[in-house]
UniProtKB/TrEMBL annotation:
It comes from Motiliproteus coralliicola. The keyword Lipid metabolism applies. Keywords: Fatty acid metabolism, Lipid metabolism, Lyase, Transit peptide. May play a role in fatty acid biosynthesis and insulin sensitivity. Belongs to the enoyl-CoA hydratase/isomerase family. One of its GO terms (biological process) is fatty acid metabolic process. This is Enoyl-CoA hydratase domain-containing protein 3, mitochondrial. The keyword Cytoplasm does not apply. GO terms for molecular function: hydro-lyase activity. It holds the Pfam family ECH_1. PANTHER family: ENOYL-COA HYDRATASE DOMAIN-CONTAINING PROTEIN 3, MITOCHONDRIAL (PTHR43602:SF1), PTHR43602. It comes from the Bacteria.
Length: 262
C-alpha cells in the first residue's frame, strides 16, 4: 500500500531560528512518494512566509536520508502522464529549495541515492556522517537519472557528475566531500550537533543579508560575467542602504555586537 495523502510524512519544529524538517518515512528509507513530496513542498512554502525561521534543515528518519523515488509507486502502471506528474512534483520540490528565501542544510546519514542525491545537491549546504553513501544508480536499472542530473550538474564539475551518472556506483562521504557534493564529513555521533552549530551560526546573521545573498548567488550563476557583475553591484548598492548593513558596519567600527532588524 502507498501512503495516504493525509498521513503525516513530514514533521517540523522551529527552535532558535532554525526549522528542522524531518522526512518521516523511515521504513522506506524516506523514498519520495508523491505524498511525501507534496507534504515536503507544502512545509517549505509555509516556511518561506515565516521570518522567524532563518535557516532550514532537512533530515530523514530511520536508517537513511533518502533512497530516491518510490519505484513501486512510480511503476504501478505505465501511465506516462501520471509518471510525468511525479517528475513535475519532484522538479517543483527541488526548485522550491533553491528559491526558498532561507538557506537549506541537508543532514545526511545512511544513503542518499537517485532523487535523494538530487535532494542533497539541491540544498544550499550539506553535512554527512562518515558512513553515508551517495549514488545516482538509475543507469544500473535502465533508467538514467536525468532529473537528478539537473541538480548534480549545478553542484559538481561536469566530469564528476558524469562519472556518478554513467557508473551508478556508490561513493562514500569522503569522496562526496572531495567532489563538492557535501560541505563537511563528521562522525555519526557528531552529525546533529555539527548541523545545529552550522545552522545557528547562519541564523545569527542578518536575515535580510543572508536571503539577499542567496537569491543573488543563484541568479548570477548562469549569467555572462559582465551581467553578473552588473547585477551583483546593484544588489550590493541596495544592501548597503538597508538598516542591517548600516547597523552592522557601525557595530564593526565600534567593536560591538550588531542588533539585526531581521
Amino acid at each position: 500500500m502507498f501512503d495516504s495523502s493525509t498521513k503525516p510524512l513530514v514533521s517540523l519544529k522551529v527552535e532558535q531560528g532554525v526549522a528542522w524538517i524531518t522526512m518521516e518515512r523511515g521504513q522506506a528509507y524516506n523514498a519520495l512518494s508523491d505524498e511525501l513530496m507534496d507534504q515536503l513542498t507544502h512545509q517549505l512554502q509555509r516556511l518561506a512566509q515565516q521570518p522567524q525561521a532563518k535557516v532550514v534543515v532537512i533530515r530523514g528518519a530511520g536508517r537513511g536520508f533518502c533512497a530516491g523515488h518510490d519505484l513501486k509507486q512510480l511503476t504501478q502502471d505505465q501511465d506516462k502522464q501520471r509518471q510525468q506528474r511525479t517528475f513535475e512534483r519532484c522538479a517543483t520540490l527541488m526548485q522550491t529549495l533553491v528559491n526558498l528565501p532561507q538557506p537549506v542544510i541537508a543532514q545526511v546519514h545512511g544513503i542518499a541515492t537517485a532523487a535523494g542525491c538530487q535532494l542533497v545537491a539541491s540544498c544550499d549546504l550539506a553535512v554527512a556522517e562518515d558512513s553515508a553513501r551517495f549514488a545516482t544508480p538509475g543507469v544500473n536499472i535502465g533508467l538514467f537519472c536525468s532529473t537528478p542530473m539537473v541538480a548534480l550538474t549545478r553542484s559538481l564539475a561536469p566530469k564528476h557528475a558524469m562519472e556518478m551518472l554513467l557508473t551508478g556506483e556508490m561513493i562514500d562521504a569522503e569522496r562526496a566531500h572531495q567532489i563538492g557534493l557535501i560541505n563537511r564529513v563528521v562522525e555519526a555521533e557528531q552529525l546533529q550537533a555539527t548541523v545545529a552549530e552550522l545552522a545557528q551560526s547562519i541564523a545569527a546573521k542578518s536575515g535580510y543579508c543572508v536571503q539577499t545573498g542567496k537569491q543573488a548567488f543563484y541568479r548570477q550563476l548562469n549569467q555572462p560575467l559582465a551581467n553578473a557583475y552588473e547585477d551583483c553591484s546593484q544588489v550590493m548598492s541596495c544592501n548597503l542602504q538597508h538598516q542591517d548593513a548600516i547597523e552592522g558596519i557601525d557595530a564593526f567600527l565600534a567593536k560591538r555586537k550588531p542588533t539585526w532588524s531581521s
